[in-house]
């Protein structure tokens, strides 16, 4: 990754404390210096420098407006005589920014925004904007987001899949309705995380989740071994129907909340520690032994809580069958929760979406950028030990009928 030396004017730094424009001035100055540094890299020479390595000559700059949430920046993009200057600064950065802006603008056009939203859009877009302007921006952004969200997944297998939903408010038929945005992430066979896709459902019903899972399978999602989620009844029924042969791991964080809700307050601390020991057991046999002890000691004191524990035991300990290194990241949906937090940061600005397309555009653009970040980052898991373990389990499974015949 390239490193750049950035210098800042004292007046810009002082401006950070004297008005709203200070941040945009700072960002504008930094980005313009980055553009000049990129030009130097491509030319392989400083301005007016005589060098044998020089690959071209500068030919001034051209202004380029960049709309951000801190205002419209004027960037001075270098021009080279051979016309070959290139930068990725604009396209990748502006996907989610454009989607956020479009959602705000649509709210104003449809007359459902607050004065605050109107002020934001006028600051970012200028004094006037029209439906044709929005339509033109959508034509550029929507195909990119939709193509990514509907891409074929056949190139890789995804042994581990995590699913969750987030509820957003969308204006439909003149009314504000709560809709569920279902999201799936996966860990592929190379150990990298991917965002597999998102879909808007009317609710978290079995029908909505079944449609979502069928859609993922139609895009050639395959090789699924472990699915991690909370215990929403509609989700679980759809999982068992659509991913037969896969193991369901119930999110331990959600389970613990449900367990403590059913536990008498006087026993919260005591039982929390004992159930935590069950979840941290080295294997399923040890976990079951610890559970039986808890059932014996607290069956009469916390009847409802013990019923929750016994009913959910197999689902919350499914991950214990895996090698130890995979358990921590597959025992909960905490990774999905962090993704939801990023969505909520944008959602707090919008609050009520003008239509479903604006949800797909904004959330899809955000997820697309997050997916690119994951793909170019570090591996989420080293999958080598998993495949060795899986092959051993397969051999044991094939030998089982023969051993039964012998016995």
UniProtKB/TrEMBL annotation:
Pfam families, per database record: Transposase_mut
Keyword field: DNA recombination, DNA-binding, Transposable element, Transposition
Gene Ontology molecular function: DNA binding; transposase activity
Keyword DNA-binding attributed: yes
Matches recorded under NCBIfam families: transpos_IS256
Protein family according to the UniProt entry: Belongs to the transposase mutator family.
Functional summary from the UniProt entry: Required for the transposition of the insertion element.
Protein name from the UniProt record: Mutator family transposase
């Amino acid at each position: 990754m390239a490193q750049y030396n950035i210098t800042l004017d004292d007046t810009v730094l002082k401006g950070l404390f004297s008005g709203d424009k200070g941040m945009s001035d700072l960002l504008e100055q930094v980005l313009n210096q980055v553009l000049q540094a990129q030009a130097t890299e491509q030319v392989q020479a400083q301005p007016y420098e005589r060098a044998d390595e020089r690959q071209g000559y500068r030919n001034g700059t051209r202004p380029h407006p960049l709309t951000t949430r801190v205002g419209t920046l004027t960037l001075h993009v270098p021009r080279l005589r051979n016309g070959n200057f290139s930068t990725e600064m604009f396209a990748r950065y502006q996907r989610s920014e454009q989607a956020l802006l479009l959602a705000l603008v649509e709210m104003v056009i449809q007359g459902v925004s607050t004065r605050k939203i109107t002020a934001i859009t006028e600051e970012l877009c200028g004094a006037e904007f029209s439906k044709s302007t929005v339509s033109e921006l959508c034509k550029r952004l929507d195909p990119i987001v939709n193509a990514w969200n509907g891409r074929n997944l056949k190139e890789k297998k995804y042994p581990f899949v995590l699913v969750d939903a987030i509820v957003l408010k969308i204006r439909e038929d003149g009314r504000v309705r709560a809709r569920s945005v279902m999201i799936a992430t996966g860990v592929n066979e190379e150990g990298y995380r991917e965002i597999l896709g998102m879909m808007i459902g009317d609710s978290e019903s079995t029908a909505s989740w079944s449609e979502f899972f069928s859609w993922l399978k139609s895009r050639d999602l395959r090789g699924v071994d472990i699915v991690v989620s909370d215990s929403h009844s509609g989700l679980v029924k759809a999982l068992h129907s659509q991913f037969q042969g896969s193991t369901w791991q119930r999110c331990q964080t959600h389970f613990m909340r449900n367990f403590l809700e059913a536990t008498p307050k006087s026993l919260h601390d005591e039982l929390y520690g004992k159930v935590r020991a069950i979840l941290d057991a080295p294997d399923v046999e040890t976990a079951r032994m610890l559970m039986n002890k808890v059932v014996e000691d607290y069956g009469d004191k916390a009847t409802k809580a013990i019923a929750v524990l016994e009913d959910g035991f197999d689902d919350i300990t499914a991950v214990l069958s895996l090698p130890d290194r995979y358990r921590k990241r597959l025992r909960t949906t905490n990774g999905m929760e962090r993704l939801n937090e990023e969505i909520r940061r944008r959602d707090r600005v919008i609050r009520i979406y003008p239509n479903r397309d604006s949800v797909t555009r904004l959330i899809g653009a955000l997820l697309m950028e997050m997916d690119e970040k994951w793909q170019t980052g570090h591996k989420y898991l080293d999958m080598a030990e998993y495949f060795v373990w899986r092959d051993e389990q397969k051999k044991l499974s094939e030998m089982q009928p023969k051993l039964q015949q012998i016995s």
